[in-house]
Write a structure and sequence with these properties.
This protein is an alpha/beta fold. It has 15 helices and 23 strands. It has an eight-stranded mixed sheet with strand order 6-5-4-3-2-1-22-23. Helix 1 links the parallel strand 3 and strand 4. The C terminus is likely disordered. Bound molecules: zinc ion. Zinc ion binds next to loops.
């Protein structure tokens, strides 16, 4: 039995793990790489395995760094089912269409600007490829056992990260021995709004755990909310500027809307004019309401208040490009939420172009910004930010509100690990930048005394579990 880490190995994007057992050959996630030209090159390169040889895929959630290369996988010959939760299945189609649209659009722009390199003018896949994925989707309920191949069973548990997100528990029999894998997927921070807490898992032989914030402790929620309220009120009431919030259309946008509602209900905000300028975010927000039964109790209560309509903030979902452009004429008083979350594409770029160089305006960063993205440059307060080929001076205020993160912080990750009743025979730390993943692995070794590895991209680990659970070989076979 062996596992290959094709992505999210010492980095946060491109999640894709390939598992080969005696009876099956499958993938967990098939995500896009994000962050600059290097990522685009990897997204276009042929897969390092044969897509035709893959029997099935299990998808943890609908974020593009986990699902974004599925259209390429299917186009290149993968014919099997893709398992996911019902909510993820609803979201997937929206996400993949948007991704195809962005790529076609960027390729067209590059062509118009006279670029000639193949990499710049060819999208990793097209709209038709994105639409075709739905034929292979197999949606299942949380906690329901499935048997996708001989001697393989798995179930999806709530990961509390975004709507539909899942942890995978999977049992594989290989030469008469049963091995239990747990793939954490992305884990949510406990006690966050809307979503339930990540499910605690009690045992695993092989554990693959994310580490996005494995070296950080989020600011507590109360401080984050205070900073949020004062940044918004100061910008709108004193500086008379706009508040620009780059936000992932899926997850973050709905949470930010939740906070604007909840804090208005508490009297902390008044007369807000909020624009959600992302057709995808609008579609996801509508879809989120349809899955009310997955919400926690507070979110259900707020849903009832907002349905009354008394004192609720003025919120407008802009659809057309004209409506979006019209927002540029607001010099003050607008709260604009737009995608993409790391400012790499989409309408947020236009709003940044019009606000970055204005001292009155404020950029509120509410999610993770990968190295190399414009969002990261804003967080690091670069002197200028390159948008649509122009360097815009960064004069606006920037607030980074880490407390809103959709990812568990170091304490939450460690406490999720502590729920395991005994040490997994082998733990692999993934989905974190190299320094972070190494640091988190060290914490696990020191605090839990577990056997931990931090795989490199392309690394293959041979897995051989002793049935008595006493020892295990995990040898590194090759690196690509
Ligand atoms: Zn995610």
């Amino acid at each position: 039995m062996k596992i290959t880490f094709h992505g999210a190995a010492k980095e946060v994007t491109g999640s894709c793990y390939e598992v080969e057992t005696e009876h099956a050959h499958f993938l967990v996630d098939c995500g896009m790489f994000q962050g600059g030209k290097a990522a685009a090159i990897r997204n276009q390169a042929p897969f390092k395995f044969n897509p035709r040889a893959i029997d099935f895929v299990i998808l943890t959630h609908a974020h593009i760094d986990h699902c974004g290369l599925l259209p390429k996988l299917c186009r290149d010959g993968f014919k099997g089912p893709i398992y996911m939760t019902l909510a993820t299945a609803d979201l997937l189609d929206i996400m993949l269409r948007d991704s195809a649209h962005i790529q076609e659009y960027e390729a067209e722009r590059a062509l118009k600007r006279g670029r000639k390199k193949e990499i710049e003018i060819t999208p990793a896949y097209r709209m038709a490829d994105a639409i075709a994925v739905s034929r292979q989707v197999s949606a299942i309920e949380y906690n329901e056992m499935s048997e996708p191949a001989l001697s393989i069973q798995f179930r999806l548990r709530d990961a509390g990260h975004i709507l539909g997100s899942a942890i995978i528990e999977l049992w594989a029999e290989d030469q008469g021995k049963k091995t239990k894998f747990v793939f954490s997927g992305d884990l949510g921070q406990p006690d966050r709004v809307i979503l339930r807490d990540p499910t605690e898992i009690e045992d695993a032989d092989i554990l693959i755990v994310e580490s996005t914030y494995g070296n950080r402790i989020h600011k507590n929620m109360e401080d984050t909310i205070e900073e949020f309220v004062s940044a918004v009120n100061e910008t709108l009431l004193e500086k008379k500027g706009n508040v620009i919030i780059p936000a992932f259309a899926l997850g973050r946008t709905q949470e930010i809307i939740y906070y604007f509602y909840e804090l208005t209900r508490q009297g902390r905000f008044r007369d807000l004019n909020i624009f959600v300028d992302s057709p995808m975010a609008t579609a996801v927000t509508k879809l989120t309401w349809r899955h009310l039964k997955l919400f926690d109790e507070e979110a259900k209560a707020l849903a009832h208040w907002s349905a009354d309509g008394d004192g609720v903030p003025n919120i407008k979902f802009t659809e057309s490009v004209e409506e979006s452009r019209a927002l540029n004429k607001f010099a003050s008083g607008a709260v604009i939420i737009a995608a993409s979350g790391m400012c790499t594409a989409g309408r947020i770029k236009h709003h940044l172009k019009h606000n970055l160089d204005r001292r009155q305006s404020t950029i509120l960063i509410t999610g993770f910004q990968a190295a190399g993205t414009p969002g990261r440059k804003i967080v690091d307060r670069a002197r200028t930010i390159r948008i649509h080929g122009k360097d815009i001076p960064l004069r606006a205020d920037v607030y980074t509100l880490g407390g809103f993160s959709a990812h568990a912080d170091q304490n939450a990750l460690l406490s999720w690990l502590r729920a395991f009743k005994k040490a997994p025979q082998r733990t692999f730390v993934t989905h974190g930048e190299a320094e972070t993943a190494n640091y988190f692995a060290k914490q696990i070794r020191q605090q839990l005394k577990w056997h931990v590895d931090v795989p490199e991209a392309g690394e293959v680990k041979e897995i051989d579990i002793n049935s008595d659970g006493a020892s295990m070989e995990a040898t590194s076979l090759q690196k690509s």
